[in-house]
Write a structure and sequence with these properties.
By secondary structure, the protein is of the alpha+beta class. It is built from two helices and two strands, in the order H-E-E-H. The protein has one domain.
Length: 48
């Protein structure tokens, strides 16, 4: 589902529900720092 800047709230919520990867934001926290894993490969900055 494509969205444009004029999309309604209902359209945005429907897109998020239909494609949960759009809102996936894994977060990895260590004693020194944290990384938001979007894209997921960013997690490797801390563990790779």
């Amino acid at each position: 589902m494509g969205l444009d800047p004029d999309s309604s709230e209902a359209e945005i919520l429907a897109a998020m529900a239909g494609s949960p990867i759009l809102i996936e934001r894994p977060i990895l926290v260590t004693k020194a720092r944290a990384v938001v894993g979007r894209p997921p490969e960013r997690i490797f900055e801390l563990v790779g």
